[in-house]
User: Fold these one by one.
Assistant:
Number 1:
Amino acid sequence: MLLPYQSDRPPAKPPIIVVSLVLVHYAVFGLVALSMALRGTDGVVLLYANFSLVPAALKWYAPFSYSILHESVVHLSANMLFLWVFGGSVADAIGWRRFALVYSAAAVLTGLAQVGMAWAIPGAARDIPILGASGAVAAMVGVFAARFYRSRIRFIGLPWSVPAVGLLAAALITEMVVTGRELLAGSSADSGVAHWSHLVGFFVGMVLAQSTRIMKEGREEYRAADVAKAIGRGTPLAAVRKLDEALRKDPANAAVRADLGRAWAAAGDAEHALQHYEQAIKAMLAQGNKRDAAARYRELAEEIENPGLSAGTLLLVAAALEDQGDAPSAYNALKSLMALHPAAPEAEMAMLRCASLLLKKLGKPSEAGAMIESFLAKYPESAFRSHAEGLRAEGK
């Protein structure tokens, strides 16, 4: 069997959830081996019979416990190697909570699929325990190939890397051939390998990636990389053309619109850049996506000094930046609002928020005091006057 050892998309930070799973699997296997060495095989046989999936004697909890048990150290190590290479990148991309949910769901679904086929095929073995994490791991391979569809994998003994999509296609074809042979023969082709679990795992991973934001996130990441590459080559208008086409297909896609703003900025067209950035940021804020809205504003501020967004957008962006813990950028956005739209109703709130940030987040009480006095002088009838006076008292 070819074993992977590296992908060109390693996780950016240690995948704690994957490390934990690997350690737990080895710890369980070690405890089982120790028990067998000290007490003999009878207890281990009973343990496996109770906690693995046995189609003829299925326990209600077995779909949740079978995947943590393994037949041998080779069986365990092969599964853990695949989990490390593919699962680490998936966990890094989708977060540990979603990873844990996908992994657990895949383990249950693939195990039940193997049990179901054991009953559906007349001559299949129904008293042989089904165990191991290979179904859940297969789902991780499916998610990886859907999320990182341009990636390549290196295998031990192969001098070249293999496309992840090609690997998934080869695995699917292999499993479909074997399971098809089982159906035609009316019995298990190899009762020691859970082929139906593998096949269902690959499909579960792909379906979950395509039916959630996982695959969309991959497309957006690759598109942003293509834009950066075009800009780096000095051909931003080529990126503009591609992004225009993508936006026509999906006009509600805020990420595409923001990338288009970035490409126009690189082409030197500030007017078009601002137009697309503002629409993208407003859409992200409307969707409650404060993180991306804040990130895109910072990106815009690097491209264009004092970007002329509307007063309402700047006020909302400042709140998003503050919510993300970026007080300096929030302050700058509010200052831009006051400079660009001094007569706008939002300028009143912007001045008060600036004073609050100076006092509470930026550690500049004297500047905060001066701004509060300016606020009280400029807006003597303000509905927020009592709040301003409270800030003044707090700063003394």
Number 2:
Amino acid sequence: MKAHFKIALRYIFSKHNFNFITIINFLSLIGIMIGVAALIIVHSIFNAFQQIAIDQIIGFDPHIIIKTNSETDYHKILSSFSTDKNVSSIASVNENRIIAVKGKTARMVNLLAIEDSTNRYLRKLRNTIIVGTTSLLTTESIPRVLIGSGLASAYDVLVGDTLALTTPKEIEGNLLSFSLPDVNNVIIEGIFQSNVKDYDYSYIFANQQIYPSLLEKNDKFSIYIKIKNIDDLIKMQKLFKNKFVNASIFSWKDLNKEFYGVMQFEKMATTFVLSIVLIVAIFNVFASLTMTVLEKKKDISILRAMGATSMFIRKLYLWEGITVGILGTFLGATLGVSLCWGEQSFKWLKLDASKYIMDSIPVELNYLDVLLIMLLSLFLTFSATIYPAYRASKLNIIDSIREE
């Protein structure tokens, strides 16, 4: 063991001299440990909640939307990506705002008329069906639709019941002519519960064989695409943009920019607040080293008189601060990872599964986050030791001995 490191350990863990500086060193170590553990735990919880929120959103929203005015491009896109190995499903979609009526209840809802020859686009929706099926193929005169649990509750309907659909333009025309609106009846084939408020309360899924009067005629064709690996989203979006220059291409992040931005801001804000705990603990390291320099003037002078160089003294105090930082960081990381692993394995913090979509507080450890938090802690600790170490190495030997 090198001499400067051995002396640094003696200063930190003094057996015979338990004083105020020793207490500050101990509190600094505890503070760094708590700060690192808290950052790891909070990041893990945020990662889990963010992933759940994203899964809920992209479970129904398309990963990529392509809109084009060219019918040639429209057919080219459909044929090109229907067999693409990176594409999970592709569908032609016509989205319209309509009015759904049942008895005395009327609501403005979004009608998603989907044409999916492979029947894969609604695969995710099947997992959320609580009553009925997702079969939208119409062999009868009355089309079949899927509605959310919120709408079903508002209309007080079940599978097999009917809804009357009409358009705002139809209502406006009838008001001007003082006549009853023409309505189109549909049968409820299935009820889904996505736990995404917009979908459960304001969306109806149908096949494009639904009444043409409900679908607005426009010159823009919409294609909804889901890809197999969501991590390839940016790469796939760039690929589509390069291949179809005249088309408008949006990703789910573009469609949910505000929501995604809020999630990122909350994570950054919480990280900043918790980092203050770490910064305060590291300031204690700075304070304890500065006081140690003042207290150990005699020791430093004797070491210098015995031949110790300025670099030796500097390393001594650098190692004293860094040792506290390393111990606090690794103990904090161990504590944080252990608590996260325990929550994942044993679900200590329970939630009411009847009210929430999870039965315990979710945790998702990202080891890159853990590594970055540890590196940040070590960097801040090292930065806090530079000035006290420099000051110790520049002490005047003669003046210090005279003062003692």
Number 3:
Amino acid sequence: MKPKALVLQAHGSNRDFDVMDALTLAGADATGVPLNELRNHKSLLADFQLLVVPGGFSYADALGAGKLLALDLASYFADEVSAFVDATKPVIGICNGFQVLVKAGILPGKQNQTQVKNEATLTFNAEGHFECRWVNLKSTSQNCIWTKDLNEIITCPIAHGEGNFQSIENISSEHIALTYVNANGSSANGVYPINPNGSTMDIAGITNAKGNVLGLMPHPENHIYLWQHPRHTRGETSGSGLKLFENGVNYARQM
């Protein structure tokens, strides 16, 4: 039976159909649900096994990227989202969705039943401009259900102006799910543009302590077909992001 995935559609979301395509290909029944519809039917969230906050420019990034949608999740849907996360259902936020999860306090999340202080943020890229390029990602977590057994480097695009992950204190290694790397898998060592935004410790994505929530800046949903690789006509077709979504869907199927 296909697990049901809710893809949250806010004003300004523009990667919702891309991620629905990836989830469908991975074996899920993906449905886009407008934020206002969810606001009027909060119990609807409990009918789904996966929650996705897609990329885009929610609320035109007013007051900061993802800030207003984060306020929605932390106020109107706090109980419902908390119950979803505590039930260890898979949750993923991509690009703007990652910014939302961090600013809503869902990531880094809880550790030993205690809320981790929200001392992390995603701020302006170190180079001071919007970045649109392809990057390489390496899984660094076997605890995260989305990145478990991802042995191949993922190659996919980024498109953001505020993807610079910073934390007041070094984030625990258990929360680091994905890092920016060279094509051969070696560390970026903070070097631009391998690390495209200046994120501390080359962090591209983080997870919560339970490993069911993933937030990442790059867009693996935009490399799920061989022909999407920018050099596919030259025979370079490796690095698909589909496995990441298959991990989430397969985990949800077992719940």
Number 4:
Amino acid sequence: MTQLLFKNARIFDGTSAECAEGMYLLVADGRIQEVSDRPISASEARVIDVGGRTLMPGMIDAHIHAFASDVAVQRVEAMGEAYRTAHALRMLTHALDCGFTTVRDIGGGNYGLYKAAADGLFVGPRYFYSGKILSMTGGHGDFRQVEESPRYQSVCGCSSTIFNTVAVIADGVDECIKSTREQLRQGAHCIKIMGSGGVASPTDPIWMNQYREDEIRAIVNECVERRSYVSAHCHPASAVRRCVEFGVRSIEHGTLIDAETARFVAEKGAYIVPTMVIIAALVELGRKLGFPAQSQEKAEYAWKQAISGMDLMRQAGVKICFGTDLMGSMYDQECREFTLRSEVFSPLEMLRQATSIPAGMMMLEGQIGCIAPGAHADLLVVEGDPLKDISLLAANGRNLRTIVRGGVVIRNELL
């Protein structure tokens, strides 16, 4: 692999507000080898003169669903695997063009897409996935309409019932353990559970807590033994608190959180991945795109508290990650998440949320989301100063002069 030598760079390392100028950075074998304030000798390296621009880590979108090709689950299922895969490739290519060199698919991702990305069958981000989400019967992963009959005859004793592209149904400790082990066997990097009601599911109220304590603790224990972790979909404060108390590492959404719960999450050192852009997009476009009426109502309810909930997280000092949760044709609004978060957070806070903080949450600290020797060479050159103007990163990649993923130059507009 060709060596890369960046020179005359202003470096944001993923954490510090102090950005050293006139820096040099050497890449070899896909990783950062050296960072120095003095010239680095590398006669065979390809030289990229950053020209004083900002060199920063590639960003991380910690909440995507690559196969969610429509806002209506029934249409996602009806169009079939080939269509969903084509959507995934379009979505992931767009993410990389926007500077997201790593994504975490937190529901529905699989080994096939991971292997295709790893083998270079398409040019996309570094891809991590949680496999099928675990949901209780009637939970947020159960998309059957209220009038549908039970499907007891389809229950598989080896891995629970697979109802849809996103989730499996597992009830009771034994089923939860078996389903967790099955997803981990299939290469899942973590396990996600449905810890509360949600927007897209038709029969569960958004305020509903889901899964018993013994079920959640059993799932957490399996992941600890695998040196992995559990993520939980949660909207209400009650669900957030109990999931964190029972050992969940990452809370997805946390939309209806309160101040006391936010302080509890911060004290426990857990993470939250708010997803503002999907809620805003559904409120604006859901009806036009055929989002089910009962789900549209829940989205509008969640949006009323989404921004204020995020502010409570900030005040409490919660470790917050960048995530988007976009579906179907909304995939191209990924960068808008920065614009929505700017109502609460500073540019520096958002830069950390998209780099070093999710890296820590994913147990990949020092590997991604940072500029340091030994880290993967996932790098961006930004035209302008994103620490002063976050809108530079909210422009679908138009202000990115260079994109490097794993030491491979994806884009370079610097001569």
